[in-house]
Amino acid sequence: MNLFFQTTRAQNTWYVGASGQNTSGYGTTIGQPFKSITYAIGQADAGDTIYVLAGTYTNATYGDGNIWKTEQTVRINNVHGSANNYITIKPYNNQAVVLKGDGDFVFQIRNSSYIRVEGFEIEGEVNNIPLSTALQYQFTYKDKNGNILERVPLGSTTEEIEAMTLPTLSNVTRPSYFNAIGLLVQGSHHIGVVNNLIHHVTGTGLRVFEGDYINVIGNEVHNCSRRSSVGNHGLVFHSSKSIDTS
User: What does the longest C-alpha to C-alpha distance in the chain come to?
Assistant: First the structure.
């Protein structure tokens, strides 16, 4: 006699709220939520749902004035649901949830699969940056030794810049504050980005890179790339990478 047993794991519901704590004993009720989506996704398994309570969520050092920081409001890396059990992240009861950030990304998904992000407002820093400030840092960069330099002298006219012979630079870093990405999906597959509002991001609003089976449905992207010092766009799909073997 052969006996076969199949076990199934109960799908869990997790909660995130601005007044929560990222520690054990929290996250399973509205009254005691986790504090961040990043922490909650680390606890989730295939088929789970993460509900985010109303409020505005930012990266840890938001507003400190550092224009070079590499920091995200939401960071998802190497997290996987399954074909019939996506991990879903969405506002609780369609409440208003705003994700803001002044780092290099507001919402970042890398090397992950079977995840659905739905119903968020992702807001960048365009409205907090005067055009004069963006112009001031237009040609600023760091070299490989961390020295802060100017590509051309401040105050140069268009005619003066056009007359310059500028060498190609390598191993340089531009200020992230002026070139942030609202939502990045990179190196991932079977990701749903659904009914989100992405706006006033200094760089690209929504970028998909090296992905496959990425469904971007019903989103609104506007007023992005308005303070960028490089060639960014509102919506970008590039370098798609098939996961199919045949």
Answer: 87
CB count in 10 Å sphere of residue 29: 11
Q: For residues 143 and 126, give the distance between their C-alpha atoms in angstroms, rounded to a whole number.
A: 26
What is d(CA 128, CA 34) in angstroms, rounded to the nearest whole number? 29
State how beta strands 148-150 and 140-142 pair.
antiparallel
- Report field, pTM of the whole predicted structure over 0.85: yes
DSSP string, 105-157: EEEEEES-EEEEEES-EEE-SGGGS-HHHHHHTTTEEE-TT--EEESS-TT--
CA distance 243 to 191: 13
Distances (CA, A) of 157 to 154, 192, 231, 241: 9, 45, 20, 43
What are 66-108's pLDDT values in tens digits? 999 999 999 999 999 999 999 999 999 999 999 999 999 999 9
The answer to whether 183 and 207 have CB atoms below 8 angstroms apart is yes
